[in-house]
Specification:
The chain is of the alpha+beta class. It has one domain (2-100). Helices cover 35% and strands 28% of the residues. The protein has a 4-stranded antiparallel β-sheet. The protein is elongated and about 50 Å long.
């Protein structure tokens, strides 16, 4: 019984996290300067990738609440699974997407 409750709690937590990440575009849609708002909340990005269409992916390493809490290895290497990559896709100063890997 405890395992079922724990499993349901984990599923609910993950679902809430996924829904919150998928709402990035709607949340920042009316913000006049979404990049500044993101940086105010998360700080400077850990990595910025330029995509083929000219947009940028701003990546932040955030702790996985279920992980081991060890620091990640160098970017581009195999990542420690105790961290998640929280990212925002920015084009022309607007948030056009986001998520977690």
């Amino acid at each position: 019984m405890k395992i079922e409750k724990l499993t349901l709690s984990i599923i609910a937590l993950c679902t809430c996290f996924i829904v919150s990440c998928s709402a990035d575009r709607a949340y920042y849609e009316h913000d006049p300067n979404p990049v500044a708002s993101i940086q105010k909340t998360y700080g400077e990005p850990d990595r910025i990738d330029t995509l083929r269409d000219g947009s940028e992916r701003m990546i932040y390493y955030t702790r996985d609440p279920l992980g081991k809490h060890v620091y990640p290895v160098e970017a581009g290497s195999v990542m420690d699974h105790s961290y998640l990559q929280r990212y925002f896709i920015i084009k022309d100063g607007k948030v056009i997407g986001g998520g977690t890997r």
